[in-house]
Every structure is written in structure tokens, then in C-alpha cells.
Inverse folding.
């Protein structure tokens, strides 16, 4: 089985001046995940590590660079899922940690539960020796500016973003991971799609793995990740299923978003109904990457490493 | 469209001990009647499920609102969800404290915020601004919940082994279809005894604890939360219906899938868009009741189907 990784850095408007930053971020994340897969690592570790790269990059709305809630603070959601046995871990409304996706994996592996929230999640992080960092450290200049602007105009700008990864490893196991700071100016305690299994992510070896991005409330209403895999179970290809899921979200709740999908045969796709979504994928030592509709830059990865 | 309104409620799927059997039965019967009276008076499915679940939350017998179980620290943390199949509008709360009727609060989230889900302290803060009554923890804690907690503290069993022994309370819920053909669902729970602080189960997770869509039907689930989440049980039942399965097959197949795939047991109630309904479970017992055409149907043990005419 040839391993595959696909990552996204969020669907939504990407300003021209940041495009290169997004592009190099998703490429680095995909390369990081692929490196693990090529060395025989499993899909779950590959998606975790790829998402860590994106959480650490302040361009993206996850970990460092997360958007701010109505009180000017960072609260983050993340989920990880292993398609081998449907085990999953998630955290919601967590603060003051650098990598929510790592905490999600610990929830999966070290507890009887699947989702820990708020203060309880913080207590668990502490018990696992995850360092608490000042909330300030997660805030990028851009997030702060965006938040201030939002306060002034009382606009309802959604500030989309979310990062994610899906992978299939050489054993044919699939996995997914998604992480986000949510939407700018969200209410304190708001949980979006990302932490909710079946909405922000899902992985099942019998069908495939999905990570979603876009307006969280709309994604939840249609349980987008699970919907796409349902379509694949019905015989649709990864592309058809991704398009059908996004179309359904458009017609039923009038909203747009983006998804990355891989099936257990290693077929993959990156689709979005927003204007842009930064994404990258690696298969057969070729890196594919894009931001705009129809864009697909292909680079042999020997040039990248 | 003229649809005969239906309500179905459940009081949790688990090995309900004999000394709670009668009170569980009468609890779900009252809740079903309460929800049905809303429908009979032309009320919406959303109002009906809210009314029924509120009644179950107020009943000490059930693990939701009053009577909720205690977490590892002896505290009460509650989850709830409500969904309107007309437009897929949904509201949910997770890990909230000191609120007697989480389902009403979930409805407030649905109607008064741009969000779907609020959690923890942030949710409680919003409750304050909406003047939702907060009650002291003691008011929600029953003798039984306290006794259970003390026992679990003593033996330090894992949550999974506890659940598999089915000695756990779990969750209440309701589904309904109104005379206009709109479906809705609501689920509310205190979770599982001795859960970690901050643990969120399936109940407030859309597609796991509940789902409602006028194009197919509505579902409310109960059972081992982590297993329900792994298979997104509510959504799975509706997917099965979309494939053409009857509501009973859709329910049974989804529960079988959960048992075989992740070794989890549970129960669910469902109503489909034509008004046919089902109550199904793989645990030892589940208290459930339903009203359609002024006939109350209810049961507790597998295969039970008692009927009573109700006065209007």
C-alpha cells in the first residue's frame, strides 16, 4: 500500500499577501506527515504531526495564530480519529496549550472518554505533563488586529479557518485530525464542528477519512465528515462524495466550506465551495498543492527535501 | 400535509433494577403524555420534545437534570441537545453546572445565539445573561446518585467496565413529529458516574446523541456514550432509513453494528417522516413510551409492548 497524506490550512478568503505563507505552511505539514509514513509510521501519527506543524505556524487559525473570542482570548477545539478501530479523542474550549491535537490524542489513548472540555481538559493536560503556556503566546499580531477590527465594525465576519490532515499508511489504515481556534468574536465557550465526531472529522478503514473546514455551525448541521463517508459507502468516488457533501451543505443550510478526503485504497481529493482553501497532498513522491479553484501545482518531492 | 402526530420518549438504556422498574415506567409514560398534549393542541414537534424531556429532567428517577449522576469529583456536569428537523437548527450545551433543565438551555442556545454548542463556564455565563435559573448543586443530587458515586469511588473500577456491566444510569430523550410533518428530537443527560471532570459524552454531539431531519426522521440515543460517538449512532439510523430500510430495521441494524464493531450497547427511539416510530435496545432494559392516536404504548423489557388508551 502506497502511503498518502493530504492536509488543509482552512477554507475561506486568503489575502494575496499571505498566499505564499499558506502555501509553504501546508507543504511543510504534508512533507512532515509523509516523512513519517515513508518510514513506516502509522496514519494516526502522520496526521497528528502534520497538524502540529500547522498549529505551530501563526498563519493558520489553530494553536499559535488562533483567532480570538469575544473577550479577546484563545479557546481551541481539536479531534483525532483512528480508522482502524474507530477510536477517537477530542478536546473543546481548551486554553493555554500549544498543541490541542496532542492533547486530543492523549484523551484517545489515556482515558476512557472521547471528548474533554474546558477546565476538565486543562486538569487532564496538567496530569499528563503538558506545559501550560501564557494565552498571550498563542496570539499572533494578525489575530489581534482582526479581533479589534471586528469589535469596531460589529461585523459578523466569520474568519474561517481550521487546519486538518487525513492519511492512509502502508498497512492501509486511515486516520484524520482537525484543529482550530474557531471563529473570530465567538462567544466564550462556543464549540464548533471541529471537536464533534462526524462533523469536523471522521475515519473508518472500511470507507476512508475526512477532515472538514468552513462555517462550523453549518458543518455540524449536516455532519459533513460522516455524510461524505456515507456517500462513499454508497459507491461514490472520493471526488463525487466530497462534491455531493459540499453541495448538500450549500442547498440545505446555504453555506460553503472545504474538505480533504482519502479512502483506504489511497485515492484522495481536496474540494471546497469557498473561494479558496490552502491544501497539499503527497502520494507516489509527488507533492500536489493549491489555494485557488482548479489550481494544482505538482512538484516531485525530491526537490523539496 | 396532514400527519398524525406522534411522540416517543426514553428514560435510558441500562440494566434497570427491579426497584426502579415501576417508577421508570410511570416516568416515561407521563413524559410521553405531556409531549403528546403539546402536539394534540397543535404545538410544534420542537415544543413537544422539549416539554417531554423537561419532565424527565425534573424526575429524580432519571439521570438528567434532577437525579443526574456525579463525576469523579462528586460534581454534577450536564449535557443536552435539541434539534429541529425543519431547518436542521440545533442547540446544545456540554458540561454545564447548576442548571435544572439543560434542554431548555440548549433551546436558548439554538434560538438566541449564532452558535450550535456552548460548553462549561462560558455556557454558564451565557445562562446568567439570559436569566436562566441556576440552582445549587445539592438540589440536583439525589440519595441514589450519591450512593452510587461512593460505591464507585471505593472500588475504582474503570468507566468502561462499569458500563459493560450495565450498572449505569443513562440519558433521557424524546422524538416527535407534529401535524405539519415537522420532526424534532431532544436528549439530556448527567453522563456516567465517576466520569472525568470535563467529560462530554454523545448526548450533546449532533449526529451521535440525536439528529432530526424532515427529509428522513428523528432519533434520540442512549447507552455507552463513547461507543455511540464512534459510530455516530443517530446519523447512522437515518442513513439506514435513507437507504430504504424501515425504521425498525434501521434502528436494529445500527444497534447491531455498534455492538459488533465497537462492542457497545445502547438503545434509541426514532420516528420517521411518515410518522412510523420504533424503540429499540440491546441493553437489558430501556424504559420507553409513545403516544399516537390517543393510544399510549410503552415497555421496559425486550419485546414488551403494552397499550393504554389515554383521556383527551
Amino acid at each position: 500500500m502506497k502511503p498518502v497524506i493530504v492536509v488543509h490550512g482552512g477554507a475561506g478568503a486568503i489575502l494575496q499577501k499571505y498566499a505564499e505563507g499558506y502555501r509553504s505552511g501546508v507543504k511543510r505539514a504534508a512533507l512532515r506527515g509523509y516523512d513519517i509514513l515513508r518510514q513506516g509510521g502509522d496514519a494516526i501519527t502522520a496526521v497528528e504531526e502534520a497538524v502540529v506543524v500547522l498549529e505551530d505556524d501563526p498563519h493558520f487559525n489553530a494553536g499559535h495564530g488562533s483567532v480570538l473570542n469575544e473577550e479577546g482570548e484563545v479557546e481551541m477545539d481539536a479531534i483525532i480519529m483512528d480508522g482502524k478501530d474507530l477510536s477517537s479523542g477530542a478536546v473543546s474550549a481548551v486554553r493555554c496549550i500549544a498543541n490541542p491535537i496532542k492533547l486530543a490524542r492523549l484523551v484517545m489513548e489515556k482515558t476512557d472518554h472521547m471528548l474533554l472540555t474546558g477546565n476538565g481538559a486543562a486538569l487532564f493536560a496538567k496530569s499528563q505533563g503538558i506545559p501550560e503556556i501564557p494565552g498571550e503566546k498563542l496570539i499572533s499580531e494578525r489575530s489581534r488586529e482582526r479581533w479589534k477590527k471586528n469589535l469596531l465594525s460589529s461585523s459578523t465576519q466569520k474568519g474561517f479557518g481550521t487546519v486538518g490532515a487525513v492519511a492512509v499508511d502502508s498497512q492501509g489504515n486511515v486516520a484524520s485530525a482537525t484543529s482550530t481556534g474557531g471563529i473570530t468574536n465567538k462567544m466564550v465557550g462556543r464549540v464548533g464542528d471541529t471537536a464533534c465526531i462526524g462533523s469536523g472529522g471522521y475515519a473508518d478503514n472500511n470507507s476512508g477519512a475526512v477532515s472538514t473546514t468552513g462555517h462550523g455551525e453549518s458543518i455540524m448541521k449536516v455532519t459533513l465528515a460522516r455524510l461524505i463517508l456515507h456517500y462513499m459507502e454508497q459507491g461514490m468516488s472520493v471526488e463525487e462524495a466530497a462534491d455531493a457533501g459540499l453541495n448538500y451543505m450549500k442547498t440545505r443550510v446555504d453555506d460553503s466550506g472545504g474538505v480533504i478526503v482519502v479512502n483506504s485504497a489511497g485515492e484522495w481529493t481536496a474540494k471546497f465551495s469557498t473561494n479558496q482553501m490552502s491544501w497539499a497532498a503527497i502520494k507516489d513522491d509527488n507533492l500536489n498543492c493549491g489555494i485557488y479553484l482548479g489550481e494544482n501545482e505538482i512538484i516531485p518531492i525530491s526537490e523539496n527535501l | 400535509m396532514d400527519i398524525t402526530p406522534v411522540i416517543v420518549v426514553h428514560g435510558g438504556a441500562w440494566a434497570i433494577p427491579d426497584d426502579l422498574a415501576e417508577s421508570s415506567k410511570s416516568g416515561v409514560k407521563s413524559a410521553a403524555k405531556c409531549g403528546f398534549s403539546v402536539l394534540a393542541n397543535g404545538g410544534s414537534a420542537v415544543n413537544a420534545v422539549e416539554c417531554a424531556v423537561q419532565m424527565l429532567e425534573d424526575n429524580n428517577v432519571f439521570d438528567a437534570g434532577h437525579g443526574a449522576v456525579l463525576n469523579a469529583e462528586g460534581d454534577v456536569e450536564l449535557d443536552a441537545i435539541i434539534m429541529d428537523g425543519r431547518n436542521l437548527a440545533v442547540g446544545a450545551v456540554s458540561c454545564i453546572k447548576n442548571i435544572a433543565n439543560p434542554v431548555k438551555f440548549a433551546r436558548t442556545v439554538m434560538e438566541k445565539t449564532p452558535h450550535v454548542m456552548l460548553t462549561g463556564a462560558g455556557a454558564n455565563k451565557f445562562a446568567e445573561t439570559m436569566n436562566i435559573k441556576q440552582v445549587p448543586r445539592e438540589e440536583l443530587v439525589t440519595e441514589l446518585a450519591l450512593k452510587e458515586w461512593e460505591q464507585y469511588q471505593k472500588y475504582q473500577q474503570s468507566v468502561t467496565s462499569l458500563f459493560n456491566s450495565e450498572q449505569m444510569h443513562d440519558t433521557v430523550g424524546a422524538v416527535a413529529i407534529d401535524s405539519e410533518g415537522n420532526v424534532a428530537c431532544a436528549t439530556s443527560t448527567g453522563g456516567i458516574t465517576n466520569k472525568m471532570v470535563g467529560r462530554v459524552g454523545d448526548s450533546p454531539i449532533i449526529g451521535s446523541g440525536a439528529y432530526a431531519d424532515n427529509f428522513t426522521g428523528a432519533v434520540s440515543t442512549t447507552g455507552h456514550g463513547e461507543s455511540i460517538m464512534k459510530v455516530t449512532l443517530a446519523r447512522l439510523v437515518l442513513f439506514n432509513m435513507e437507504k430504504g430500510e424501515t425504521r425498525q430495521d434501521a434502528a436494529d441494524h445500527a444497534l447491531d453494528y455498534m455492538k459488533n464493531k465497537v462492542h457497545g450497547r445502547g438503545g434509541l427511539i426514532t420516528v420517521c417522516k411518515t410518522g412510523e416510530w420504533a424503540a429499540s435496545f440491546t441493553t437489558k432494559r430501556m424504559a420507553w413510551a409513545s403516544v399516537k392516536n390517543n393510544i399510549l404504548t410503552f415497555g421496559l423489557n425486550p419485546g414488551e409492548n403494552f397499550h393504554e388508551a389515554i383521556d383527551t
Observations:
- Residues 16-38 of chain A form the longest helix (23 residues).
